[in-house]
UniProtKB/TrEMBL annotation:
Keywords: Sigma factor, Transcription, Transcription regulation. NCBIfam families: PRK09636.1, sigma70-ECF, SigX4. Signal peptide: none annotated. InterPro entries: ECF_Sigma-70_Domain (IPR052704), NTF2-like_dom_sf (IPR032710), RNA_pol_sigma-70_dom (IPR014284), RNA_pol_sigma-70_ECF (IPR014303), RNA_pol_sigma70_r2 (IPR007627), RNA_pol_sigma70_r4_t2 (IPR013249), RNA_pol_sigma_r2 (IPR013325), RNA_pol_sigma_r3/r4-like (IPR013324). The lineage of its organism: Bacteria, Bacillati, Actinomycetota, Actinomycetes, Kitasatosporales. Interacts transiently with the RNA polymerase catalytic core formed by RpoA, RpoB, RpoC and RpoZ (2 alpha, 1 beta, 1 beta' and 1 omega subunit) to form the RNA polymerase holoenzyme that can initiate transcription. Belongs to the sigma-70 factor family. ECF subfamily. PANTHER family: ECF RNA POLYMERASE SIGMA FACTOR SIGJ, SIGMA 19 FACTOR. Pfam families: Sigma70_r2, Sigma70_r4_2. This is RNA polymerase sigma24 factor. Residues 105-156 form the RNA polymerase sigma factor 70 region 4 type domain.
Amino acid sequence: MRTMTEDAFTEHRPLLFTIAYEMLGSAADAEDVLQESYLRWSAVDASTVEHPRAYLVRVVTRQALNHLRTVKARREEYVGTWLPEPIRTAPEAGEDVILAESVSMAMMLVLETLTPSERAVFVLHDVFGYTHGEIAASIGKAEVTVRQIAHRARRHVQARRRRFEPGSEATQEVVQRFLSAAATGEIQELMDLLAPDVVAISDGGGKVVAARKPVVGADDVARFVLGVLRTTTTTRTRVEPATYNGMPAARFLTDDALDWLVAFEIHEGRISALYGVRNPDKLHRADAVRAIDRGEPSHGNHDR
C-alpha cells in the first residue's frame, strides 16, 4: 500500500528529475540525487509538511549542489569533449519553449561554465520561476546574495546562449533531408542544409573513436559526417528519428544496439550545430523516454 510520502514524491518526480538533470547534466547523477533525496524525504512525517513540493525542491537542490561540486573534477579529466548525457524526451517536449531550451545540448554546455551556485540559481529562477527568497532558503544564502548571483549568471548565459528551434515536424524534416543526403554521399546537398558557421561536437569519452575537438564550418562538417558514416555504419545499421533534450535527433542502431546518437540544433531552417554522442556509458541509459516538467511557475517569477 502506497504511503503519503511515496505519493508526494511520485507526483513531483518529473519536476525533481528535471531540476537535478539541469543542475548536473547527467541522468545517472540526477537519479542518484533523487534516490538520496527520497531517503531523506522518507525519514520525514509528510503530514507535517505544509508544502511538499517546495520542501522536496529544497532537498533535491541541496543534494544536487553537493553532487555537482564532486563531479567538477571528474569532468575536467574527461577525455575529449564532454557532452551532457542525452535524455530521450517526448516530441511534445518542444511545446514548452523555455523547458526545451533549458535542456538543450547548447544550454547545458553553457550551464557547465557556471559555478555550482550560479547554476542552481539560474536554473531555479530563470527556468522554474522560483523567487530569490525561495532560492535563498534552498541553497542557504542571503536573498541579496542570491540576487547578485542571479544577475551574474544571467549575464553569463545571455552572452553565450545559442538560438535554436525546438523539435517539431519542420525541424525533423530538415534532419530527414540531411540524413538522406548523407546516406547517398551528396556533399553539396549536405552543405546546403548547414549554416556556414555550423559546429559538430562529438563525445566518445575516450572509449570509442570521436573527434577530440569541435569541427567548424559547412564544408568540414559535411566531410566529417560522411567520414563518420562510412567508418561506423554497416548494412545492419538503421537510423531512427527521435527527440532528445527537446531537439530533433537521429538514433543509429547496429544489430538493434544504439551506437551513435546525434541531436540537431536548427536555426532559420538550417542546421547550426550537431551534437554526436558515442560514449557507450551514456548511450546505454539513453533509450528510456524521460518525463520532464517545470511544474506550476512560482508566483514570483519576475522578481528580478
